[in-house]
Design a protein that fits this description.
The complex is a heterodimer of chains A (169) and B (390). Chain A has 169 residues and is an alpha/beta fold. Chain A is 21% helix and 25% strand. Chain A is built from 4 helices and 7 strands; from the N terminus they run ααββαββββαβ. Chain A is globular. By secondary structure, chain B is an alpha+beta fold. Chain B has helices at 47-51, 56-64, 71-86, 92-121, 125-145, 167-189, 193-199, 207-212, 218-221, 229-232, 253-276, 302-314, 354-359, 362-366, 371-381, 385-389, and strands spanning 7-11, 23-29, 32-39, 154-155, 158-159, 321-329, 332-340, 348-352. In chain B, strand 2 (23-29) and strand 3 form a beta hairpin. In chain B, helix 3 packs antiparallel against helix 4 (92-121), helix 4 runs antiparallel to helix 15 (371-381) and helix 6 packs antiparallel against helix 11 (253-276). The longest helix of chain B has 30 residues, at 92-121. The A-B interface holds A 6-9, 38-41, 67-71, 73, 75-76, 88, 90, 94, 97, 99, 101, 119-121, 123-125, 132, 145-149, 156-157, 161, 163 and B 40-41, 44, 46, 48-50, 52-53, 84-85, 87, 209, 211-214, 225-227, 232-235, 320-326, 333, 335, 337, 339, 347-348, 350, 352, 356-357, 360, 364, 389-390.
Protein backbone atom coordinates (compact mmCIF):
# COMPACT_ATOMS: atom_id res chain seq x y z
CA UNK A 1 0.00 0.00 0.00
CA UNK A 2 1.42 3.35 -0.92
CA UNK A 3 1.72 6.17 1.55
CA UNK A 4 -0.85 8.17 -0.32
CA UNK A 5 -3.53 5.57 0.12
CA UNK A 6 -3.04 5.45 3.85
CA UNK A 7 -3.91 9.08 4.33
CA UNK A 8 -7.67 9.03 4.75
CA UNK A 9 -8.27 7.03 1.58
CA UNK A 10 -6.41 9.47 -0.61
CA UNK A 11 -5.35 8.05 -3.94
CA UNK A 12 -3.92 11.13 -5.59
CA UNK A 13 -6.94 11.53 -7.83
CA UNK A 14 -6.75 8.18 -9.60
CA UNK A 15 -9.89 6.30 -8.60
CA UNK A 16 -9.00 3.08 -10.36
CA UNK A 17 -5.89 2.73 -8.20
CA UNK A 18 -8.00 2.05 -5.14
CA UNK A 19 -7.98 -1.74 -4.53
CA UNK A 20 -11.66 -1.79 -3.55
CA UNK A 21 -12.70 -0.34 -6.91
CA UNK A 22 -10.80 -3.03 -8.76
CA UNK A 23 -12.25 -5.74 -6.52
CA UNK A 24 -15.85 -4.61 -7.05
CA UNK A 25 -15.27 -4.29 -10.80
CA UNK A 26 -13.96 -7.81 -10.83
CA UNK A 27 -16.69 -9.50 -8.80
CA UNK A 28 -19.76 -7.31 -9.36
CA UNK A 29 -19.23 -5.75 -12.79
CA UNK A 30 -22.92 -5.19 -13.47
CA UNK A 31 -23.71 -3.59 -10.09
CA UNK A 32 -21.57 -0.48 -10.54
CA UNK A 33 -23.40 2.66 -11.59
CA UNK A 34 -20.58 5.14 -11.21
CA UNK A 35 -17.04 5.51 -9.90
CA UNK A 36 -16.33 9.05 -8.77
CA UNK A 37 -13.72 10.90 -6.80
CA UNK A 38 -13.41 14.21 -5.06
CA UNK A 39 -10.70 15.71 -2.85
CA UNK A 40 -8.66 12.59 -3.62
CA UNK A 41 -11.23 10.24 -2.10
CA UNK A 42 -12.92 7.57 -4.18
CA UNK A 43 -16.43 6.21 -4.01
CA UNK A 44 -18.46 3.73 -5.95
CA UNK A 45 -22.21 3.97 -6.46
CA UNK A 46 -23.97 0.63 -6.76
CA UNK A 47 -27.47 -0.68 -7.33
CA UNK A 48 -29.60 -1.16 -4.19
CA UNK A 49 -30.49 -4.74 -5.13
CA UNK A 50 -27.17 -6.25 -4.09
CA UNK A 51 -25.69 -3.55 -1.87
CA UNK A 52 -25.44 -5.73 1.23
CA UNK A 53 -23.88 -8.50 -0.82
CA UNK A 54 -21.15 -6.09 -1.91
CA UNK A 55 -20.67 -4.82 1.65
CA UNK A 56 -20.30 -8.43 2.82
CA UNK A 57 -17.80 -9.06 0.05
CA UNK A 58 -15.79 -5.97 1.02
CA UNK A 59 -15.81 -7.01 4.67
CA UNK A 60 -14.71 -10.58 4.07
CA UNK A 61 -12.25 -10.02 1.24
CA UNK A 62 -8.80 -10.96 2.54
CA UNK A 63 -7.06 -8.20 0.57
CA UNK A 64 -9.33 -5.42 1.82
CA UNK A 65 -10.84 -6.46 5.17
CA UNK A 66 -13.21 -3.54 5.64
CA UNK A 67 -14.21 -4.80 9.06
CA UNK A 68 -15.22 -1.42 10.50
CA UNK A 69 -18.31 0.52 9.48
CA UNK A 70 -17.23 4.00 10.33
CA UNK A 71 -20.41 5.78 9.36
CA UNK A 72 -23.69 5.27 7.61
CA UNK A 73 -25.75 8.22 6.51
CA UNK A 74 -27.93 9.55 3.72
CA UNK A 75 -28.16 12.58 1.44
CA UNK A 76 -31.37 13.93 -0.02
CA UNK A 77 -31.33 15.13 -3.63
CA UNK A 78 -34.94 16.15 -4.36
CA UNK A 79 -33.98 17.32 -7.86
CA UNK A 80 -32.81 13.91 -9.03
CA UNK A 81 -35.78 12.05 -10.41
CA UNK A 82 -35.79 8.37 -9.48
CA UNK A 83 -32.66 8.71 -7.32
CA UNK A 84 -33.76 11.10 -4.61
CA UNK A 85 -31.76 9.47 -1.85
CA UNK A 86 -28.23 8.31 -1.43
CA UNK A 87 -27.17 6.00 1.36
CA UNK A 88 -23.50 6.50 2.15
CA UNK A 89 -21.41 3.82 3.82
CA UNK A 90 -18.00 4.86 5.12
CA UNK A 91 -15.84 1.78 5.46
CA UNK A 92 -12.56 1.38 7.23
CA UNK A 93 -10.13 -1.47 7.62
CA UNK A 94 -8.58 -1.68 11.08
CA UNK A 95 -5.81 -3.94 9.78
CA UNK A 96 -5.01 -2.37 6.39
CA UNK A 97 -5.85 1.20 7.53
CA UNK A 98 -7.69 1.89 4.33
CA UNK A 99 -10.87 3.88 3.76
CA UNK A 100 -13.54 3.49 1.16
CA UNK A 101 -16.98 4.90 0.50
CA UNK A 102 -19.90 3.00 -1.00
CA UNK A 103 -23.09 4.69 -2.11
CA UNK A 104 -26.48 3.29 -2.91
CA UNK A 105 -29.06 5.28 -4.86
CA UNK A 106 -32.70 4.98 -3.91
CA UNK A 107 -35.88 6.53 -5.14
CA UNK A 108 -38.55 8.02 -2.91
CA UNK A 109 -40.22 5.27 -0.89
CA UNK A 110 -37.76 2.56 -1.84
CA UNK A 111 -36.38 0.31 0.91
CA UNK A 112 -32.84 -0.92 1.28
CA UNK A 113 -31.62 -4.04 3.01
CA UNK A 114 -30.23 -3.51 6.50
CA UNK A 115 -26.50 -3.70 7.13
CA UNK A 116 -27.01 -4.46 10.83
CA UNK A 117 -26.45 -8.16 10.14
CA UNK A 118 -22.90 -7.34 9.08
CA UNK A 119 -22.11 -4.68 11.66
CA UNK A 120 -23.96 -4.21 14.93
CA UNK A 121 -23.18 -0.51 14.78
CA UNK A 122 -25.47 -0.14 11.75
CA UNK A 123 -28.45 -0.63 14.08
CA UNK A 124 -28.41 2.90 15.52
CA UNK A 125 -26.99 4.52 12.42
CA UNK A 126 -29.86 3.14 10.34
CA UNK A 127 -32.36 4.20 12.97
CA UNK A 128 -30.99 7.72 12.65
CA UNK A 129 -31.32 7.64 8.85
CA UNK A 130 -34.90 6.40 9.26
CA UNK A 131 -35.61 9.16 11.77
CA UNK A 132 -34.08 11.95 9.69
CA UNK A 133 -34.90 10.86 6.14
CA UNK A 134 -37.75 8.35 6.43
CA UNK A 135 -35.85 5.62 4.59
CA UNK A 136 -36.89 2.14 5.68
CA UNK A 137 -34.38 -0.64 6.20
CA UNK A 138 -35.59 -4.09 5.31
CA UNK A 139 -34.94 -6.59 8.11
CA UNK A 140 -33.89 -3.99 10.68
CA UNK A 141 -34.41 -5.44 14.18
CA UNK A 142 -35.79 -2.33 15.84
CA UNK A 143 -36.73 0.46 13.47
CA UNK A 144 -37.83 3.36 15.66
CA UNK A 145 -37.02 7.04 15.81
CA UNK A 146 -33.85 7.68 17.76
CA UNK A 147 -33.22 11.41 18.22
CA UNK A 148 -36.67 12.88 17.60
CA UNK A 149 -39.57 12.01 19.91
CA UNK A 150 -41.84 9.12 18.90
CA UNK A 151 -44.81 11.33 18.04
CA UNK A 152 -42.76 13.58 15.77
CA UNK A 153 -44.12 14.18 12.29
CA UNK A 154 -41.90 14.41 9.26
CA UNK A 155 -38.23 13.73 8.67
CA UNK A 156 -36.11 16.80 9.42
CA UNK A 157 -33.11 16.27 7.16
CA UNK A 158 -35.23 16.08 4.03
CA UNK A 159 -34.76 19.24 2.04
CA UNK A 160 -38.47 20.11 1.98
CA UNK A 161 -38.61 20.13 5.80
CA UNK A 162 -38.56 23.77 6.95
CA UNK A 163 -35.61 24.82 9.09
CA UNK A 164 -37.80 26.14 11.89
CA UNK A 165 -40.04 23.09 11.94
CA UNK A 166 -43.72 22.73 11.16
CA UNK A 167 -45.15 23.29 14.63
CA UNK A 168 -44.51 26.00 17.19
CA UNK A 169 -42.83 24.64 20.30
CA UNK B 1 -43.16 -23.32 39.46
CA UNK B 2 -42.11 -19.81 40.15
CA UNK B 3 -42.91 -17.24 37.54
CA UNK B 4 -39.89 -15.39 36.25
CA UNK B 5 -40.42 -11.70 36.06
CA UNK B 6 -38.00 -8.90 35.29
CA UNK B 7 -38.16 -5.51 36.85
CA UNK B 8 -37.99 -2.49 34.58
CA UNK B 9 -36.51 0.67 35.99
CA UNK B 10 -35.62 4.02 34.53
CA UNK B 11 -32.12 5.27 35.04
CA UNK B 12 -32.02 8.95 34.24
CA UNK B 13 -32.55 11.32 32.56
CA UNK B 14 -31.76 13.01 35.85
CA UNK B 15 -29.41 10.47 37.33
CA UNK B 16 -26.10 12.19 38.13
CA UNK B 17 -23.96 9.45 36.60
CA UNK B 18 -25.64 9.73 33.21
CA UNK B 19 -23.75 12.98 32.58
CA UNK B 20 -26.54 15.13 31.37
CA UNK B 21 -29.67 13.81 29.85
CA UNK B 22 -29.31 10.13 29.08
CA UNK B 23 -32.15 7.83 30.01
CA UNK B 24 -31.58 4.10 30.19
CA UNK B 25 -34.44 1.66 30.46
CA UNK B 26 -33.04 -1.21 32.47
CA UNK B 27 -34.53 -4.66 32.79
CA UNK B 28 -33.29 -6.37 35.90
CA UNK B 29 -33.32 -9.90 37.14
CA UNK B 30 -32.78 -9.22 40.81
CA UNK B 31 -29.75 -7.00 40.57
CA UNK B 32 -28.42 -8.41 37.31
CA UNK B 33 -28.92 -6.45 34.12
CA UNK B 34 -30.86 -8.36 31.46
CA UNK B 35 -31.46 -5.53 29.05
CA UNK B 36 -30.37 -1.91 28.84
CA UNK B 37 -31.98 0.34 26.26
CA UNK B 38 -30.55 3.85 26.07
CA UNK B 39 -33.09 6.51 25.21
CA UNK B 40 -31.39 9.52 23.69
CA UNK B 41 -32.34 12.73 21.96
CA UNK B 42 -33.15 14.96 24.94
CA UNK B 43 -30.46 17.40 23.84
CA UNK B 44 -31.17 17.24 20.12
CA UNK B 45 -30.64 20.67 18.57
CA UNK B 46 -30.57 19.70 14.92
CA UNK B 47 -26.99 20.78 14.29
CA UNK B 48 -26.86 18.96 10.94
CA UNK B 49 -30.04 20.65 9.72
CA UNK B 50 -28.89 24.04 11.05
CA UNK B 51 -25.57 23.71 9.24
CA UNK B 52 -27.31 23.41 5.90
CA UNK B 53 -28.56 26.96 6.40
CA UNK B 54 -25.31 28.48 7.60
CA UNK B 55 -22.16 29.55 5.81
CA UNK B 56 -19.06 27.46 6.32
CA UNK B 57 -17.54 29.79 8.89
CA UNK B 58 -20.82 30.11 10.76
CA UNK B 59 -20.93 26.35 11.21
CA UNK B 60 -17.65 26.43 13.10
CA UNK B 61 -19.08 27.70 16.43
CA UNK B 62 -21.72 24.97 16.28
CA UNK B 63 -19.02 22.31 16.28
CA UNK B 64 -17.70 23.58 19.62
CA UNK B 65 -21.01 22.69 21.16
CA UNK B 66 -20.99 19.04 20.11
CA UNK B 67 -18.50 17.57 22.50
CA UNK B 68 -18.23 20.59 24.74
CA UNK B 69 -15.39 19.09 26.75
CA UNK B 70 -13.19 18.72 23.68
CA UNK B 71 -14.26 21.63 21.51
CA UNK B 72 -10.74 22.03 20.09
CA UNK B 73 -10.87 18.56 18.56
CA UNK B 74 -14.27 19.16 16.98
CA UNK B 75 -13.05 22.43 15.49
CA UNK B 76 -10.00 20.70 14.10
CA UNK B 77 -12.01 17.89 12.51
CA UNK B 78 -14.38 20.34 10.87
CA UNK B 79 -11.65 22.71 9.71
CA UNK B 80 -9.62 19.88 8.20
CA UNK B 81 -12.66 18.74 6.23
CA UNK B 82 -13.31 22.26 4.96
CA UNK B 83 -9.64 22.72 4.06
CA UNK B 84 -9.69 19.52 2.04
CA UNK B 85 -12.74 20.80 0.17
CA UNK B 86 -11.06 24.13 -0.49
CA UNK B 87 -7.70 22.54 -1.19
CA UNK B 88 -5.68 25.06 0.82
CA UNK B 89 -2.32 24.68 2.47
CA UNK B 90 -1.68 25.55 6.09
CA UNK B 91 1.54 27.12 7.41
CA UNK B 92 3.59 24.82 9.59
CA UNK B 93 3.41 27.06 12.62
CA UNK B 94 -0.39 26.91 12.47
CA UNK B 95 -0.27 23.12 12.24
CA UNK B 96 1.92 22.97 15.32
CA UNK B 97 -0.36 25.32 17.26
CA UNK B 98 -3.42 23.32 16.25
CA UNK B 99 -1.87 20.03 17.25
CA UNK B 100 -0.85 21.52 20.59
CA UNK B 101 -4.39 22.78 21.23
CA UNK B 102 -5.83 19.41 20.22
CA UNK B 103 -3.56 17.61 22.69
CA UNK B 104 -4.35 20.12 25.45
CA UNK B 105 -8.00 19.44 24.71
CA UNK B 106 -7.38 15.73 25.05
CA UNK B 107 -5.81 16.18 28.48
CA UNK B 108 -8.68 18.46 29.47
CA UNK B 109 -11.28 15.93 28.36
CA UNK B 110 -9.54 12.97 29.97
CA UNK B 111 -9.09 14.86 33.24
CA UNK B 112 -12.77 15.62 33.54
CA UNK B 113 -13.55 12.03 32.57
CA UNK B 114 -11.22 10.72 35.27
CA UNK B 115 -12.69 12.92 37.98
CA UNK B 116 -16.32 12.21 37.21
CA UNK B 117 -15.76 8.52 36.51
CA UNK B 118 -14.06 8.08 39.86
CA UNK B 119 -16.72 10.18 41.59
CA UNK B 120 -19.44 7.98 40.06
CA UNK B 121 -17.86 4.90 41.52
CA UNK B 122 -17.37 6.54 44.89
CA UNK B 123 -13.87 8.02 44.92
CA UNK B 124 -15.07 11.61 45.13
CA UNK B 125 -11.68 13.03 46.13
CA UNK B 126 -10.35 12.43 42.62
CA UNK B 127 -12.65 15.05 41.10
CA UNK B 128 -11.14 17.80 43.25
CA UNK B 129 -7.63 16.92 42.11
CA UNK B 130 -8.41 16.61 38.42
CA UNK B 131 -10.42 19.84 38.36
CA UNK B 132 -7.37 21.59 39.81
CA UNK B 133 -5.15 20.55 36.89
CA UNK B 134 -7.96 21.06 34.41
CA UNK B 135 -8.18 24.65 35.60
CA UNK B 136 -4.55 25.18 34.59
CA UNK B 137 -5.24 23.75 31.12
CA UNK B 138 -8.34 25.90 30.74
CA UNK B 139 -6.36 28.99 31.77
CA UNK B 140 -3.80 28.21 29.08
CA UNK B 141 -6.52 27.65 26.50
CA UNK B 142 -8.16 30.91 27.55
CA UNK B 143 -4.93 32.86 27.19
CA UNK B 144 -4.30 31.45 23.76
CA UNK B 145 -7.76 31.37 22.24
CA UNK B 146 -9.74 33.90 24.27
CA UNK B 147 -12.26 31.49 25.75
CA UNK B 148 -12.15 28.62 28.19
CA UNK B 149 -14.70 26.22 26.80
CA UNK B 150 -15.74 27.24 23.29
CA UNK B 151 -12.58 28.48 21.58
CA UNK B 152 -13.64 28.56 17.88
CA UNK B 153 -9.95 29.24 17.45
CA UNK B 154 -9.10 27.47 14.20
CA UNK B 155 -9.78 28.94 10.78
CA UNK B 156 -9.46 27.53 7.30
CA UNK B 157 -5.80 28.23 6.56
CA UNK B 158 -4.53 28.50 10.13
CA UNK B 159 -5.60 29.85 13.50
CA UNK B 160 -7.37 33.06 14.49
CA UNK B 161 -4.42 34.67 16.25
CA UNK B 162 -0.87 33.88 17.21
CA UNK B 163 0.09 32.26 20.48
CA UNK B 164 1.47 34.52 23.20
CA UNK B 165 5.27 34.80 23.60
CA UNK B 166 5.22 33.01 26.96
CA UNK B 167 3.12 30.11 25.63
CA UNK B 168 5.99 27.64 25.63
CA UNK B 169 7.27 28.49 29.10
CA UNK B 170 3.77 28.22 30.55
CA UNK B 171 3.16 24.89 28.83
CA UNK B 172 6.51 23.63 30.10
CA UNK B 173 5.64 24.62 33.66
CA UNK B 174 2.31 22.90 33.32
CA UNK B 175 3.73 19.66 31.89
CA UNK B 176 6.43 19.45 34.54
CA UNK B 177 3.76 19.72 37.22
CA UNK B 178 1.24 17.54 35.40
CA UNK B 179 3.54 14.57 34.90
CA UNK B 180 4.01 14.38 38.67
CA UNK B 181 0.29 14.76 39.24
CA UNK B 182 -0.60 11.82 36.96
CA UNK B 183 1.56 9.61 39.17
CA UNK B 184 -0.38 10.94 42.14
CA UNK B 185 -3.69 10.08 40.51
CA UNK B 186 -2.43 6.61 39.78
CA UNK B 187 -1.28 6.19 43.36
CA UNK B 188 -4.83 6.91 44.47
CA UNK B 189 -6.54 4.53 42.04
CA UNK B 190 -4.45 2.07 40.06
CA UNK B 191 -3.62 -0.33 42.87
CA UNK B 192 -6.55 0.68 45.05
CA UNK B 193 -8.41 -2.49 46.08
CA UNK B 194 -11.86 -0.93 45.96
CA UNK B 195 -11.15 0.65 42.59
CA UNK B 196 -9.90 -2.63 41.17
CA UNK B 197 -12.84 -4.48 42.63
CA UNK B 198 -15.28 -2.11 41.01
CA UNK B 199 -13.61 -2.02 37.60
CA UNK B 200 -11.68 -5.24 36.89
CA UNK B 201 -13.64 -7.75 34.87
CA UNK B 202 -16.61 -5.37 34.67
CA UNK B 203 -18.21 -4.39 31.38
CA UNK B 204 -16.05 -6.67 29.28
CA UNK B 205 -16.31 -6.39 25.52
CA UNK B 206 -14.40 -8.62 23.13
CA UNK B 207 -12.31 -7.39 20.23
CA UNK B 208 -14.70 -8.71 17.58
CA UNK B 209 -17.71 -7.14 19.30
CA UNK B 210 -15.84 -3.86 19.66
CA UNK B 211 -15.07 -3.72 15.93
CA UNK B 212 -18.56 -4.78 14.95
CA UNK B 213 -20.09 -2.17 17.24
CA UNK B 214 -17.89 0.53 15.78
CA UNK B 215 -16.09 1.34 19.04
CA UNK B 216 -13.26 3.76 18.46
CA UNK B 217 -10.71 5.64 20.48
CA UNK B 218 -9.60 4.52 23.96
CA UNK B 219 -12.58 2.15 24.29
CA UNK B 220 -11.51 0.20 21.19
CA UNK B 221 -7.86 0.16 22.21
CA UNK B 222 -8.82 -1.25 25.61
CA UNK B 223 -10.31 -4.22 23.72
CA UNK B 224 -7.15 -4.93 21.79
CA UNK B 225 -7.90 -2.99 18.62
CA UNK B 226 -4.52 -1.57 17.68
CA UNK B 227 -5.74 1.50 15.86
CA UNK B 228 -5.22 5.20 16.36
CA UNK B 229 -5.91 7.68 13.59
CA UNK B 230 -3.06 9.89 14.78
CA UNK B 231 -0.60 7.13 13.93
CA UNK B 232 -2.36 5.25 11.11
CA UNK B 233 -3.67 8.15 9.06
CA UNK B 234 -1.62 11.04 10.40
CA UNK B 235 -3.00 14.54 9.99
CA UNK B 236 -1.40 17.86 10.92
CA UNK B 237 2.06 17.12 12.35
CA UNK B 238 1.48 13.82 14.13
CA UNK B 239 3.81 12.00 11.74
CA UNK B 240 6.69 14.13 13.08
CA UNK B 241 5.99 13.36 16.72
CA UNK B 242 7.11 10.45 18.80
CA UNK B 243 4.42 8.80 20.86
CA UNK B 244 3.22 5.38 21.91
CA UNK B 245 -0.30 4.06 21.42
CA UNK B 246 -1.30 2.07 24.47
CA UNK B 247 -3.30 -1.09 23.65
CA UNK B 248 -4.68 -3.57 26.19
CA UNK B 249 -6.51 -6.84 25.49
CA UNK B 250 -8.81 -7.11 28.53
CA UNK B 251 -11.66 -4.92 27.34
CA UNK B 252 -12.98 -4.12 30.82
CA UNK B 253 -13.55 -0.85 32.67
CA UNK B 254 -10.11 -1.07 34.26
CA UNK B 255 -8.40 -1.42 30.87
CA UNK B 256 -10.23 1.63 29.57
CA UNK B 257 -9.03 3.52 32.64
CA UNK B 258 -5.44 2.40 32.10
CA UNK B 259 -5.51 3.38 28.42
CA UNK B 260 -6.68 6.90 29.16
CA UNK B 261 -4.11 7.39 31.91
CA UNK B 262 -1.34 6.43 29.50
CA UNK B 263 -2.84 8.64 26.80
CA UNK B 264 -2.58 11.66 29.08
CA UNK B 265 1.12 10.91 29.60
CA UNK B 266 1.63 10.57 25.85
CA UNK B 267 -0.24 13.81 25.25
CA UNK B 268 2.02 15.71 27.59
CA UNK B 269 5.00 14.06 25.89
CA UNK B 270 3.67 15.30 22.55
CA UNK B 271 3.10 18.79 23.95
CA UNK B 272 6.75 18.94 24.99
CA UNK B 273 7.86 18.01 21.46
CA UNK B 274 5.43 20.50 19.97
CA UNK B 275 6.69 23.49 21.91
CA UNK B 276 10.31 22.42 21.36
CA UNK B 277 9.80 22.22 17.62
CA UNK B 278 7.45 25.18 17.22
CA UNK B 279 8.54 26.81 13.94
CA UNK B 280 8.56 30.53 13.27
CA UNK B 281 6.44 32.01 10.52
CA UNK B 282 2.88 33.04 9.78
CA UNK B 283 0.05 31.53 11.83
CA UNK B 284 -2.45 31.78 9.00
CA UNK B 285 -2.26 31.65 5.22
CA UNK B 286 -4.00 34.84 4.15
CA UNK B 287 -5.36 33.78 0.80
CA UNK B 288 -7.92 36.52 0.15
CA UNK B 289 -10.62 34.20 -1.15
CA UNK B 290 -10.95 32.18 2.03
CA UNK B 291 -9.36 34.02 4.93
CA UNK B 292 -10.25 37.30 6.59
CA UNK B 293 -7.56 39.96 6.20
CA UNK B 294 -5.54 41.16 9.15
CA UNK B 295 -7.77 43.40 11.28
CA UNK B 296 -5.14 46.15 11.43
CA UNK B 297 -5.08 46.44 7.64
CA UNK B 298 -8.81 47.13 7.49
CA UNK B 299 -8.40 50.81 8.36
CA UNK B 300 -5.70 51.53 5.84
CA UNK B 301 -6.40 49.38 2.83
CA UNK B 302 -9.47 49.43 0.62
CA UNK B 303 -8.63 45.98 -0.79
CA UNK B 304 -8.56 44.48 2.67
CA UNK B 305 -11.89 46.12 3.38
CA UNK B 306 -13.39 44.63 0.21
CA UNK B 307 -12.02 41.17 1.02
CA UNK B 308 -13.44 41.34 4.49
CA UNK B 309 -16.80 42.54 3.23
CA UNK B 310 -17.00 39.91 0.49
CA UNK B 311 -16.13 37.12 2.90
CA UNK B 312 -18.67 38.21 5.48
CA UNK B 313 -21.49 38.78 3.00
CA UNK B 314 -20.85 36.06 0.43
CA UNK B 315 -18.92 33.55 2.50
CA UNK B 316 -16.38 31.15 1.13
CA UNK B 317 -17.63 28.71 -1.47
CA UNK B 318 -15.69 25.47 -1.99
CA UNK B 319 -15.94 23.79 -5.39
CA UNK B 320 -18.43 21.00 -5.97
CA UNK B 321 -17.37 17.82 -4.26
CA UNK B 322 -17.51 15.93 -1.03
CA UNK B 323 -15.13 14.79 1.64
CA UNK B 324 -15.12 12.54 4.68
CA UNK B 325 -12.45 13.60 7.07
CA UNK B 326 -11.77 12.06 10.46
CA UNK B 327 -9.47 12.72 13.37
CA UNK B 328 -8.77 11.04 16.67
CA UNK B 329 -10.81 13.00 19.20
CA UNK B 330 -10.45 12.21 22.93
CA UNK B 331 -13.53 10.00 22.70
CA UNK B 332 -12.72 8.28 19.44
CA UNK B 333 -13.12 8.83 15.76
CA UNK B 334 -14.93 12.06 14.97
CA UNK B 335 -15.74 12.42 11.29
CA UNK B 336 -17.20 15.16 9.17
CA UNK B 337 -18.82 14.23 5.88
CA UNK B 338 -19.46 17.39 3.89
CA UNK B 339 -21.16 17.52 0.52
CA UNK B 340 -20.64 20.81 -1.29
CA UNK B 341 -22.73 21.90 -4.26
CA UNK B 342 -20.52 24.90 -4.92
CA UNK B 343 -22.56 27.32 -2.81
CA UNK B 344 -21.33 29.05 0.36
CA UNK B 345 -23.44 26.76 2.53
CA UNK B 346 -22.83 23.03 2.95
CA UNK B 347 -25.38 20.99 0.99
CA UNK B 348 -25.17 18.24 3.57
CA UNK B 349 -23.07 18.07 6.68
CA UNK B 350 -22.93 14.82 8.57
CA UNK B 351 -21.17 14.48 11.89
CA UNK B 352 -19.95 11.05 12.88
CA UNK B 353 -19.90 11.45 16.65
CA UNK B 354 -17.76 8.97 18.57
CA UNK B 355 -19.95 9.03 21.68
CA UNK B 356 -23.10 8.15 19.73
CA UNK B 357 -21.52 5.06 18.25
CA UNK B 358 -19.74 4.10 21.48
CA UNK B 359 -22.90 4.35 23.58
CA UNK B 360 -24.53 1.65 21.48
CA UNK B 361 -22.21 -0.91 23.05
CA UNK B 362 -23.67 -0.25 26.50
CA UNK B 363 -26.00 -3.24 26.25
CA UNK B 364 -23.22 -5.64 25.23
CA UNK B 365 -21.04 -4.37 28.05
CA UNK B 366 -23.60 -4.32 30.83
CA UNK B 367 -25.61 -7.48 30.16
CA UNK B 368 -25.00 -9.90 33.01
CA UNK B 369 -23.39 -7.27 35.21
CA UNK B 370 -24.84 -5.79 38.38
CA UNK B 371 -26.97 -2.66 38.40
CA UNK B 372 -24.26 -0.72 40.24
CA UNK B 373 -21.77 -1.64 37.52
CA UNK B 374 -23.83 0.15 34.88
CA UNK B 375 -22.68 3.39 36.50
CA UNK B 376 -19.05 2.32 36.14
CA UNK B 377 -19.59 1.24 32.54
CA UNK B 378 -21.24 4.51 31.47
CA UNK B 379 -18.36 6.36 33.09
CA UNK B 380 -15.79 4.25 31.28
CA UNK B 381 -17.43 4.91 27.90
CA UNK B 382 -16.77 8.62 28.41
CA UNK B 383 -19.84 9.90 26.63
CA UNK B 384 -20.93 13.49 26.13
CA UNK B 385 -24.59 13.95 25.36
CA UNK B 386 -24.06 17.16 23.42
CA UNK B 387 -22.34 15.05 20.82
CA UNK B 388 -24.70 12.09 20.93
CA UNK B 389 -27.86 14.12 20.43
CA UNK B 390 -26.33 16.87 18.31
Amino acid sequence: MTDNLNRQGFTGGEPEKHPAVAAIRNDFPSAIIEVENSCGQVWVTVLPSNSVEILLFLRNNKELEFDFLSDLTAVHWPGRRGAEFEIVYQLYSTSKHLRFRLKVRLEEGQDVETASKLWQTADWLEREVYDMFGISFEGHPDQRRILNPDGFEGHPLRKEFPLQGRVRW
Amino acid sequence: MARQEFMTINMGPHHPSTHGVLRIILELDGEVVVNAIPDIGYLHRGVEKLSEDKKYLQVLPLTDRLDYLASGSNNLAYILAVEKLLGIEVPRRAQYIRTAIAEMTRINSHLLWLGTHAADIGAVTMLMYTLREREDILDLIEETTGTRMMPTYFRPGGVARDILPDFDSKIRTFIDKFEIKINEYERLLTKNRIWMGRTKGVGVISRSDAVSLGLSGPCARASGVNWDIRRDEPYEVYDELEFKIPVLPEGDVYARYMIRMEEMRQSSRMLRQLIDGMPEGPFIERSPKYVYPDKERLEGSIEAMIHHFKLVVDGLAPPKGEVYSTIEAPKGEIGFYIVSDGSPKPYRLRIRPPSFVNLQSLLTMSRGNMLADVVAIIGSLDIVLGEIDR
